[in-house]
Amino acid sequence: TMEDPQSKRNFRVSYYDKVGFRGIGEKALVAILKDDVIERKKLEHFCIRFPIPNNYRDLIWEILLHILPSHQQSHKFVMVQRTQQYDDLHRALEVMKKIDTDTELPVQFLKMHLTETGKLHLKFKDEKWHEFFYAVGNAVCELVDSPAIAYWITVSLHSFFTENKYIEHKEAFHIIVTSTVKKENNALFTKLNDLDVFHNLPFDLWYAECYAHVFPPSGGIERIWDLLLGRACRILPYIAAQILLTFERHLLHCANLQSCLSVLKNVPFSEATSSLIIGKGIELWKKMEKI
C-alpha cells in the first residue's frame, strides 16, 4: 500500500521536533533566507549540516542551481520570467505536435530543453544521456508541484550532475568504499575482494548518474542530492558501501563476480530498501567523515 505523502511529512516533522531540528536547523535556515542577498556558501553549508525540510527544498535548490538569483528582491520577477519561458516552450511544442496531454512530464521537459538549446531535430530519437535526464525529471516531479519549477530544476540539476563529472573521482571513491566495507564487515570485504567486485561496481549508475536509476523517486534520493548540492560529493562512495553492506546476505552467497553484479544491478531497489540504504549511508558518511 502506498503511504499517504501527508502522513509521511507529518512523521518527518515530528521526528525533527524530537531531535531538536526545528530549534537549531530551521532557525539557522530562516536566518540565511532572511538576508536581502542570500549567501550560497551558507546554504551549501546548511545542506551538509542539517536535513532540509521538504517545504524549503525547492527554494534552496533553485538558489543553489542559480535558477533564482541570490538577491531576494529579484525572485518574484525572475520566477515570472521563468514561468513565461516555460509556457512559451510548452505551447510551441504543442503547436509542432511534438508533445500532447499523454506525453510524460520528463519527456516534455527534455523536448523543451532541446528546443531551448536549438537541438530538437525533426526526427526525435532517444540518446544515452536522455535516460539519465528522465530519471532526474521523474524524481523532481515527485518532489515539486509546479511543472514550471520542476522543469527548471530538472534541467539545472541534470547539468550540475553532468558538469561535476563525479565518475572522475572513481579511484578516490574506490579507497573509501573498500576501507569502509572492510571496517564495517571484514567477512564481506574478503568475499568481494576475492571476486574482484570492488573494481567492477556499476560506477555509471552509481557515480556518473548519482543513483538516479538506483533509488525510486519516492525512496529518499533527494537527501543524497541535497548533499551533492552542498558540495559533499564524498557521500557517493558511502552510499555505495552501504548498498554492499545492506545486500551482505545475498552477496555472501554469490559464487562469482557475475552473480554479485546481478544483485547490485537489479534496480530500482524497493522504496523501503532505498530509504534504509540512504538513511544508513548518510549516517556512515557522517561517522567516517566526522561531520
UniProtKB/TrEMBL annotation:
It is found in: Cytoplasm, Cytosol; Cytoplasmic vesicle; Lysosome membrane. The lineage of its organism: Eukaryota, Metazoa, Chordata, Tunicata, Ascidiacea. One of its GO terms (biological process) is negative regulation of TOR signaling. This is TBC1 domain family member 7. Keywords: Cytoplasm, Cytoplasmic vesicle, GTPase activation, Lysosome, Membrane. It comes from Ciona savignyi. One of its GO terms (molecular function) is GTPase activator activity. Residues 51-232 form the Rab-GAP TBC domain. Non-catalytic component of the TSC-TBC complex, a multiprotein complex that acts as a negative regulator of the canonical mTORC1 complex, an evolutionarily conserved central nutrient sensor that stimulates anabolic reactions and macromolecule biosynthesis to promote cellular biomass generation and growth. The TSC-TBC complex acts as a GTPase-activating protein (GAP) for the small GTPase RHEB, a direct activator of the protein kinase activity of mTORC1. GO terms for cellular component: cytoplasmic vesicle; cytosol; lysosomal membrane. Signal peptide: none annotated.
